[in-house]
Design a protein that fits this description.
Elements (H helix, E strand, L loop, with lengths): L1 H8 L3 H13 L3 H12 L9 H11 L2 H5 L22 E4 L2 E3 L4 H6 L3 H10 L8 H4 L4 H14 L20 E3 L8
Parallel strand pairs: 1-3
Antiparallel strand pairs: 1-2
Length: 182
């Protein structure tokens, strides 16, 4: 039988890998179920801990770019103890002026389940890319919460949004396209 398996897998790397996997796991049903469960789950980050997964997501998703004062200007050279405390510089466009929230204070007021629901369902003002955030897997949303919560509360609340018919009293970045002079 082994001779037939060897002949069948020659020139078929995927088949050889499958046979090797079966041999190494001993065809245990729980291993097979784990493979099925993983294949059927939504894409998500795998890390040593959910806090580490959340930290990684904060970095690569660019959360600090807006939610950490000075992060972009210093190319990320901001102590982690200052991350996600918000930024009082607004983003102004046709919707008015919005401010990146202090996420550390936000998670202090929310349960983990409320956080997950918010990230899944919220449709709010730009420039926050809610259409992308709404796509996070539940495990990634929970990892973000756990990481932000691990930082502890810090900083102050950021200004409330300013309607489009009012002028903000803080510095802001204009997100209105300007046509070049001809």
């Amino acid at each position: 039988m082994l001779e037939h398996v060897i002949r069948w897998t020659q020139g078929r790397p995927a088949a050889a890998a499958l046979v090797l996997c079966v041999l190494l796991t001993g065809c245990r049903p729980e291993t097979q179920q784990a493979v099925v469960d993983e294949a059927e789950s939504p894409p998500h980050l795998v890390a040593a801990s959910s806090v580490e997964a959340g930290r990684y997501l904060v970095i690569v998703a660019g959360c600090n770019d807006c939610h950490t004062d000075g992060y972009l200007a210093t190319e990320g050279d901001v102590p982690e103890s200052d991350w996600l405390t918000g930024w009082s510089v607004g983003f102004r466009g046709p919707w008015g002026t919005t401010y990146p929230k202090n996420l550390r204070l936000t998670v202090e007021r929310m349960s983990e389940d409320e956080w997950v629901t918010t990230l899944r369902e919220r449709k709010a003002l730009p420039p926050m890319p809610w259409m992308n955030i709404n796509q996070l897997s539940e495990s990634d949303a929970r990892a973000l919460y756990q990481y932000i919560r691990s930082l502890g509360p810090a900083g102050e609340a950021m200004p409330q949004p300013v309607p489009p018919d009012q002028e903000p009293s803080t510095p802001f970045i204009s997100l209105v396209p300007v046509a070049p002079d001809k």
